[in-house]
Amino acid sequence: MTRLDKKWLRHAFDNAAVEYDGIISLQKKVGRQLLDFLIPGDETSLMILDVGCGTGFCISELAKSDWDAQFIGLDVAMGMLRQARCRVGDRADFVCADAETLPLPDNSVDMIISNLALQWCSDLDGAFSGFQRILKPDGVLLFSIFGDRTLNELRDAWSQVDEFSHVNHFHTTDYLKRLMVDAGFVESALNSQTHGVRYSSVLELMRELKGIGAHNVTLGRCRGLTGKGRFNNMVAAYEARMLKNEIYATYDVSFGSARKMKTVAEIHKVA
């Protein structure tokens, strides 16, 4: 289990909230892909929870669709929720809470969506168990999450400088598949996709990561100031890979879907 500094995580996303929407082109692209998996049915008055809703992008997209739904946006950072409220108004209720300790009743939501947020959970097992608890029978979980190859180039460059944790750690697809099964979900599926983003410099990449609150929040990070010499050595190691005066950053995205069992009979059948 990768331990994250939740206090620092909340602080990072609070600071990023105001400028966040102007930077998150990849997050928006992945969010639209995630929502494309949803097909409106005949159900009415669905209760949809967006875990790690950020500034409310996914809720606003769904609110423009044919979905007849009520929305709850949940995020660990109050700054993000303020921006989400400005975006969607009273179209949703908002809760400031951690995805690992969901303050919602059992069997209370029809669907959970989460776009590129679950990688910030230290206890992802606990988060998936919580999803299972609050979903109604036959409820649906749909999520995207950064996979283990994300920012490999940056991680490799730092590894040539020191042994500290400078880049957040992300989960493998095998681990994510096991989590869904262990939590009791059925019809679970997971597909991966690689996005490559080019930057003019390492500094541009680092500024973007800081701007979206995605800089290093692991407990194993160096707590002092990173010396200028070490930082410059990392930049040199990364830029040794430059092609046509650009660096390349990998973002490995996994799309997951699963369903909570419908009836006691179905539970016995699976068992």
Report on the architecture of this protein.
This protein has one domain (6-270): Rossmann fold (3-Layer(aba) Sandwich). The protein has 10 helices and 7 strands. It has helices spanning 6-20, 25-35, 57-63, 78-88, 124-134, 152-159, 173-182, 202-211, 228-239, 264-270, and strands spanning 46-51, 69-75, 92-96, 109-115, 135-146, 186-199, 247-259. A 7-stranded mixed β-sheet has the order 3-2-1-4-5-7-6, with helices on both faces. Helix 1 (6-20) runs parallel beside helix 4 (78-88) and helix 6 packs across helix 9. The protein is globular and about 60 Å long. The model is unreliable at 217-225 (pLDDT under 50).
Neighbour order of strands in the largest sheet = 3-2-1-4-5-7-6
- How many DSSP-defined strands? 7
CATH class: Alpha Beta
Helical stretch count? 10
Structural class by secondary-structure content = alpha/beta
Mean pLDDT over the full residue set? 87
Residues in β-strands, percent: 15-25%
Helix content: 25-40%
N-to-C terminal Cα separation, in Å? 28 Å
CATH homology superfamily name = Vaccinia Virus protein VP39
